């Protein structure tokens, strides 16, 4: 379905409810620049580390697209677990996983409540930015503690610039991108207002510092487009 969520005036802050879930795949592709390329790169990097029976967790898995694509492109037979606190998203994920014949364990819960047992890979695509900073850092520490030695954490986030001029230019560039995807000025402004104080981005350096402070030996940006970035963190 086509994303028309913000064609009408908003009455609440942004949430991943049934209305959003029904158009989420279209929303991602039209709202996140080079989303498919980011997903492809994440999967390619991940496959280098994975072996048969490894456990993979996707935090904020939404409709399970990344886990389905990982299953399709990785040679290893994996234990796939998707976690999301939106039942509406998971309902879509179940239907998609069944349609593609991919076995995924889907869990409706808060990310802080999950025991990420035997994790070799943990994924998080544009999820940490919705978690309050103090809780975000606690979750990243939990991710580090849960990963096996040699495990990896791949995550994507919207980022901001520490330079105010560059930050404004990035926002303007992103605005033009959304217009090029068919969103009206009204839709763009409505979504921005709905996300205010819900999505709290870090700078690229702040994301890397958070990762290293949690104990990871290395964190590197593997993809970036203006104010969107994908990182890989390694636990030695």
UniProtKB/TrEMBL annotation:
<dbReference type="InterPro" id="IPR029063">
    <property type="entry name" value="SAM-dependent_MTases_sf"/>
</dbReference>
<comment type="similarity">
    <text>Belongs to the class I-like SAM-binding methyltransferase superfamily. Cx-SAM synthase family.</text>
</comment>
<protein>
    <recommendedName>
        <fullName>Carboxy-S-adenosyl-L-methionine synthase</fullName>
        <ecNumber>2.1.3.-</ecNumber>
    </recommendedName>
</protein>
<feature type="binding site">
    <location>
        <begin position="60"/>
        <end position="62"/>
    </location>
    <ligand>
        <name>S-adenosyl-L-methionine</name>
    </ligand>
</feature>
<keyword id="KW-0949">S-adenosyl-L-methionine</keyword>
<keyword id="KW-0808">Transferase</keyword>
<feature type="binding site">
    <location>
        <position position="35"/>
    </location>
    <ligand>
        <name>S-adenosyl-L-methionine</name>
    </ligand>
</feature>
<comment type="function">
    <text>Catalyzes the conversion of S-adenosyl-L-methionine (SAM) to carboxy-S-adenosyl-L-methionine (Cx-SAM).</text>
</comment>
<feature type="binding site">
    <location>
        <position position="192"/>
    </location>
    <ligand>
        <name>S-adenosyl-L-methionine</name>
    </ligand>
</feature>
<feature type="domain" description="Methyltransferase">
    <location>
        <begin position="56"/>
        <end position="151"/>
    </location>
</feature>
<dbReference type="Pfam" id="PF13649">
    <property type="entry name" value="Methyltransf_25"/>
</dbReference>
<dbReference type="InterPro" id="IPR041698">
    <property type="entry name" value="Methyltransf_25"/>
</dbReference>
<feature type="binding site">
    <location>
        <position position="125"/>
    </location>
    <ligand>
        <name>S-adenosyl-L-methionine</name>
    </ligand>
</feature>
<dbReference type="GO" id="GO:1904047">
    <property type="term" value="F:S-adenosyl-L-methionine binding"/>
</dbReference>
<feature type="binding site">
    <location>
        <begin position="84"/>
        <end position="85"/>
    </location>
    <ligand>
        <name>S-adenosyl-L-methionine</name>
    </ligand>
</feature>
<dbReference type="GO" id="GO:0016743">
    <property type="term" value="F:carboxyl- or carbamoyltransferase activity"/>
</dbReference>
<feature type="binding site">
    <location>
        <begin position="110"/>
        <end position="111"/>
    </location>
    <ligand>
        <name>S-adenosyl-L-methionine</name>
    </ligand>
</feature>
<dbReference type="InterPro" id="IPR005271">
    <property type="entry name" value="CmoA"/>
</dbReference>
<dbReference type="GO" id="GO:0002098">
    <property type="term" value="P:tRNA wobble uridine modification"/>
</dbReference>
């Amino acid at each position: 379905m086509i994303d028309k969520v913000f064609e009408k005036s908003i009455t609440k802050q942004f949430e991943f409810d049934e209305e959003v879930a029904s158009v989420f795949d279209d929303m991602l592709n039209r709202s996140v620049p080079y989303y498919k390329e980011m997903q492809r790169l994440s999967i390619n990097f991940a496959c280098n580390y994975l072996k048969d029976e490894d456990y993979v967790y996707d935090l904020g898995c939404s409709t399970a697209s990344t886990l389905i694509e990982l299953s399709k492109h990785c040679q290893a037979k994996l234990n796939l677990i998707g976690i999301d606190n939106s039942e509406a998203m998971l309902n879509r994920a179940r239907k998609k996983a069944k349609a593609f014949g991919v076995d995924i364990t889907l869990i409706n819960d808060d990310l802080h409540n999950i025991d990420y047992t035997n994790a070799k890979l943990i994924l998080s695509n544009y999820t940490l930015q919705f978690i309050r900073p103090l809780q975000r850092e606690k979750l990243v520490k939990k991710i580090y503690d849960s990963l096996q030695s040699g495990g990896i954490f791949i995550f994507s986030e919207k980022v901001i610039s520490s330079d105010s001029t560059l930050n404004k230019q990035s926002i303007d560039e992103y605005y033009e991108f959304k217009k090029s995807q068919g969103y009206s000025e009204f839709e763009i402004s409505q979504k921005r207002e709905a996300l205010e104080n819900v999505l709290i981005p870090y700078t690229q350096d702040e994301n890397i510092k958070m990762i290293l402070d949690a104990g990871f030996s290395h964190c590197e940006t593997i993809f970036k487009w203006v104010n969107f970035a994908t990182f890989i963190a390694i636990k030695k």
